[in-house]
């Protein structure tokens, strides 16, 4: 039996109808068992929380599910109960927990920040016409396995603008920025970054929000670069300084820059390793596409993209342009003076490798 093909569409259609608390709980268990290969005893129902005299509807790994009949009427109940449930599990285990509230149709993710319930990522309004969207939305919240395929959409889903990882990192970076923004070294790096943007765009475009987005993207990009070469570390300094690539004999590609300001505080060091851990879940040695371009595009919202005048070359066009421009890939030297995410260089390297293999 193929559950995704035969049963997932029916399951999604029923969930989207808001079939009631008990039905949602039963169907959620099916999604976890058949969609995510969970063992029967891994999906725990009606878990007692004695300290707060309550029961968790469903507990799976480090995720607490709060199930309602209709979130439109019961969101206040979620906001009252879910913080206590998450705090209880975190006290008991010493681990961070994610909370998901759902009535089958609407799916919302939350975490605790300083004891306050905070939304994570973009909620899902389940469309029965696209049943796979439920698994795609749940996957980053539930998956703790490594060696995920480095598909651009999968990377964007796990690390992009609507992801749980970015939502958490954005809040943590904002708190860290409030703490360190007046530090002389941090202020200088922010000023130098802003000056370069003014020079490039001819106008002031460097907001704090964009600076924090670039910080996040830089951490992810440097981690991906090291991981693609099989390098790992538990030192945040090694991720941002380029030391991991230097161990491979690669110099000048990844170096310390404006965005290592986060290392001036222990919480920033921990955040770098947390972001890096999310990025290293992908088996990047097998990367066959420009995953950084897809990630970068997803992080810059349309208004910022318009203000910055940024437009991205599709992969098929970049590949065709490289084949036309680089007639002798084993002898030509390639320079991209307007390198953004490196799309043309990515395809130039692939062109070179293909020619080398043929030769």
Can you put this structure into words, describing what you see?
The protein is an alpha+beta fold. The chain has three domains: 3-144, Alpha-Beta Complex (tt1808, chain A), CATH 3.90.1570; 145-312, no CATH class; 313-359. 54% of the residues lie in helices and 12% in strands. The chain contains 16 helices and six strands. The protein has helices at 3-6, 8-16, 21-35, 71-93, 132-142, 152-159, 164-180, 184-201, 208-228, 236-241, 243-246, 266-279, 291-299, 302-308, 315-325, 343-358, and strands spanning 43-49, 54-60, 63-67, 98-102, 106-113, 116-125. Helix 4 (71-93) links the parallel strand 3 (63-67) and strand 4 (98-102). The mean pLDDT is 85.
The best one-word shape is globular
Count the domains. 3
Strand order of the largest sheet: 1-2-3-4-5-6
What radius of gyration results from the CA coordinates? 23 Å
SS elements, strand count: 6
Q: What's the SSE pattern?
A: HHHEEEHEEEHHHHHHHHHHHH
Number of helices: 16
How would a crystallographer describe the biggest sheet? Answer: 6 strands, mixed
Beta-strand proportion: 5-15%
The unreliable regions are: none
Q: Structural class of the secondary structure composition?
A: alpha+beta
Q: Mean pLDDT, nearest integer?
A: 85
- Name the helicity range: 40-55%
Distance N terminus to C terminus?
47 Å
């Amino acid at each position: 039996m193929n559950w995704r093909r035969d049963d997932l569409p029916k399951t999604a259609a029923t969930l989207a109808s808001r079939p009631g608390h008990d039905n949602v709980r039963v169907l959620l268990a099916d999604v976890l068992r058949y969609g995510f290969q969970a063992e029967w005893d891994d999906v725990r129902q009606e878990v007692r929380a004695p300290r707060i005299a309550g029961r968790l509807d469903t507990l799976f790994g480090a995720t607490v599910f709060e199930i309602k009949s209709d979130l439109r009427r019961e969101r206040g109940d979620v906001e009252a109960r879910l913080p206590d449930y998450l705090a209880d599990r975190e006290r008991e285990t010493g681990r961070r927990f994610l909370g998901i509230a759902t009535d089958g149709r609407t799916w919302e993710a939350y975490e605790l920040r300083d004891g306050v319930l905070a939304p994570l990522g973009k909620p899902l309004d389940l469309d029965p016409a696209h049943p796979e969207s439920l698994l795609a939305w749940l996957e980053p919240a539930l998956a703790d396995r490594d060696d995920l395929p480095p598909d651009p959409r999968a990377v964007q889903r796990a690390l992009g603008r609507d992801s749980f990882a970015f939502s958490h990192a954005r809040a943590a970076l904002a708190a860290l920025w409030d703490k360190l923004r007046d530090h002389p070294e941090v202020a200088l790096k922010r000023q130098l970054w802003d000056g370069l943007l003014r020079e490039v765009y001819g106008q002031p475009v460097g907001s704090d929000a964009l600076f924090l987005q670039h910080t996040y993207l830089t951490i992810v990009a440097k981690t991906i670069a090291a991981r693609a070469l099989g390098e790992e570390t538990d030192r945040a300094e090694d991720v941002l300084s380029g030391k991991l690539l230097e161990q491979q004999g690669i110099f000048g590609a990844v170096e310390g820059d404006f965005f290592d300001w986060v290392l001036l505080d222990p919480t920033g060091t921990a955040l770098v390793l947390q972001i890096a851990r999310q990025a290293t879940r992908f088996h990047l040695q097998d990367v066959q596409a420009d995953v950084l371009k897809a990630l970068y595009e997803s992080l810059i919202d349309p208004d910022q993209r318009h203000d910055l005048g940024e437009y991205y070359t599709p992969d098929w066009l970049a590949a065709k342009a490289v084949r036309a421009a680089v007639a002798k890939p084993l002898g030509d030297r390639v320079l991209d003076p307007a390198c953004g995410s490196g799309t043309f260089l990515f395809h130039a390297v692939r062109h070179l490798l293909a020619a080398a293999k043929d030769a």
